[in-house]
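From the shared-data thread, chain only:
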Amino acid sequence: MNSNKIINAGVLAYGMSGKVFHAPFLDAHPGFNLKAIVERSKKIAVNDYPNILSYNSVDELLADDEIELVVINTPNNLHYEHAKAALNNHKHILVEKPFTATTMQAKELFELADSVGKQIFFYQNRRWDSDFTSVRNVIQSGKLGKLVEMHMRYDRYRKVIGPKAFKENPIEASGLLYDLGPHLLDQVIGLFGKPLSYHKILGKNRAGTLVDDYFSIQLSYPDSLNVFVTSSMLVVNPQAGFVLHGMNGSFIKHRTDIQEEQLLAGMKLSDPAYGIESESKDGVLTTIDADGNKTEETIPSERGSYLPLFEAVYQGIVNNEPYPVTREDVITQMEIIESPVTA
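Structure, as tokens:
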């Protein structure tokens, strides 16, 4: 096991995702050196990382032979193009969701990665959210008994059309299904694997919208388990993010991961409060025994941290250890996103 190797990393953009979801973790992980970033206009990364190189273009960064890992965090419709270019420049890649716009593009990149001997990692960070890890722990505890039904929601309220063209114009990988669908579907697939079947609904509700701003997908699993994932841009009063019903009880948990909020506020990963949810966000587990007696139990939120994702990337590159999000997981996710809307 090689634990001393330092991997030079580059990030393709320093907007919110680069500043919040990637740079702090690459900087904090002892196995990575955050060497470079692409900034086309504002050169602000140096304020946070004084030793960082700021390149003017993706091509400049990809031409840096010292960089071994490239984070693809550009607009959705550019993921395929930039992932392909990085692989052709013999870089490992960590790609934000959605991985690509189509399964065909995904499979092409898998073949290319294999041919050049480089690895693809999928940035599905919501597997490491505090709310989701709490839900997974409750399922694994067996306290609910046989699962019957699970509802997962990821809602926002944004009535007006947003300024990001790649999300709001009808181009490749735009719309809410491509934006938040990968999060919800990856969480379901991470828990239960590939569904037996699924039923998908899309909606366009905001005035003037050119893309979907609502989706709901019902996924059927063995033993009569039904999972429902829903997302809307027009929810003023968000409902619980996770509702689970089993033979022995129910578990209700709000979508609560605080990491994004803390990082935007400038909190460091070393802060003892990092990733800790308030007690008001605890989940509630209600179970019933054989005599019909109900017991209500508060389930504290797990501490959230995306550092294990970057550790998994490091171990994948250095020791060829399996990455938790597999190619099969991503293909399943994308087949569902690409599938026709059910009549």
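The two ends are 53 Å apart (CA to CA).
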